[in-house]
């Protein structure tokens, strides 16, 4: 799953997106964040409307379509294996896809003395582009969920699932609202090579959302 991540190198994120998708993005006026939690605004790239230019702005991390009522769930993740056919996600999968940039994410490894958090990122420290879906919510705000897939490479050492991080060639087609055929998407969009992933243990201070500073991503010794 992906329930916590970090986004702190904002200039590199904007530079990466500009190199891949071209010019036209306003500078992001957001602070670096080392402990991003669900139920908050997150930075994302998406088309607010099908014919609108690509935007780089904020989505609420919590997915609940306008038509969902009562005690309908508000998931933060969606398994990529079922989003194309799920009643909850299929409309967004067809036309409301987005990208959530991250410098890395956190997973917890179960040890005899409790769960040990690890920070997972690219070994070259380039931004990760996490595949997401967005929807119009009843409160008028756009909300999103991050897609997950079975864990691969170094990530599989920590958890059985991981966020779906895309390779550079997949970013433009993933964001294209005109590309709605799921078979074409399946053959066009590819996840990041797992050889690029690495991880290290970090302080359990990250367990508390209020601890949002560079120290929570620093490696520690365990055992």
What structural category characterises the helix and strand content? alpha+beta
CATH superfamily, by name, is SOS response associated peptidase-like
Number of helices: 4
Q: Tell me what portion of residues adopts beta-strand conformation.
A: 25-35%
User: What is the terminal separation in angstroms?
Assistant: 26 Å
| Main pleated-sheet profile | 7 strands, mixed
Mean pLDDT comes to 91
> What's the SSE pattern?
EHEEEEHEEEEEEHHE
Return Rg in Å.
17 Å
Q: What is the approximate shape? A: globular
**Number of individual domains:** 1
Total strands: 12
Characterization of the model:
It is a single chain. By secondary structure, the protein is of the alpha+beta class. The model has no long low-confidence stretch (mean pLDDT 91). The protein has one domain: hypothetical protein yedk fold (Alpha-Beta Complex), CATH 3.90.1680. It has helices at residues 10-21, 90-95, 168-175, 182-188; strands at 5-7, 33-36, 41-46, 55-61, 77-79, 97-102, 104-111, 114-122, 128-136, 142-150, 161-163, 197-201. It is globular, with a radius of gyration of 17 Å. 35% of the residues are buried. Strands 3, 4, 5, 6, 9, 10 and 11 form a seven-stranded mixed beta sheet that branches. Strands 2-1-7-8-12 form a five-stranded antiparallel beta sheet, with no helix packed on it. The protein starts with a strand and ends in a 22-residue tail after the last strand. Residues 204-223 are annotated as: Disordered. It is an enzyme of class 3 (hydrolase). Belongs to the SOS response-associated peptidase family.
